[in-house]
Amino acid sequence: MINLFSEEMRRDPYPIYDQMRSASPVLNLPPPFDMWMIFDYENVRRRVVTDHEAFSSRVPAPDNWFIFFDPPQHTRMRALISRAFTPKSIVNLEPRIRELSRELLDKALARGEIDLAAEYSAPLPMMVIAEGSSDFSFSTLRRRGAAGSRPLFLFFNSPSCYTMPMQVSERRFVTAKEAVQFLSPWTLEEWMCRADVVPNKELLLVRANMDPGRSHPFHTHPTREEIIYIISGRAEQWCGRDHRILVPGEMVLIPKGEVHGTYNPFPEKLVFLAILAPANAPDPAIVDVSQQEPWRSIRSGFPPTT
What we know:
This protein has 306 residues and is an alpha+beta fold. 27% of the residues lie in helices and 22% in strands. The protein is globular, with a radius of gyration of 23 Å.
């Protein structure tokens, strides 16, 4: 029996791939994977990448790895993430990446030898990510990666993150550039008040940017109450079974544990503030109920969103 996860396979998978294409272009992996592997180009092109009902990307994997999501969730996540990795933003990183690259190579030159994977190709991207992350150092990323732990949500600042920030304990004012940005499955979030931005005690504050046709479907915050205040655009806002169309200057109070959802079926972007309390509440912070009745069908007849 072929071990697709052996060390030999990892180092040189191509002979096995050739064998599969000629002898077994469709291969079933038993549980815990319980999935089908397709090695034939034509079948992949004509069926696998288009028929998501028959060929799902969902396999046993850590939570929140969006490469294992199916459309429309994968499409939504990829669209949000791609907005952060524009050609301009990547070009802005180039000078610092060159510096880090030289640092790694200089250490190897001094010794006269290098393990290219362990000492260069693996640490370089982690060092770049760690410098853009407000929560994790390079050593933390390396340690958690080596341990095979759950994936990290990374919160990226602007290129100004390469300069030494003011100590959080001293900060009282927060500019737009100092907000911590996070691409969630629903909105581009700009965190203005939380523990890595200001020395908050009771409140959380985030400005959320929701594109037309998007939504944060029905969910609850079991341990926090929330206020949603509209800055621009319009929101189809649900609180329990009731809904309103909120416009700038209007808000909704959502009691702790209340099912609610924010939808933007309108042609303009929706921008709103979400204020949550208490800041240090126990998990779970959020529970999705959008696929449970009556919430799954309660918007029947309303304009569709993703």
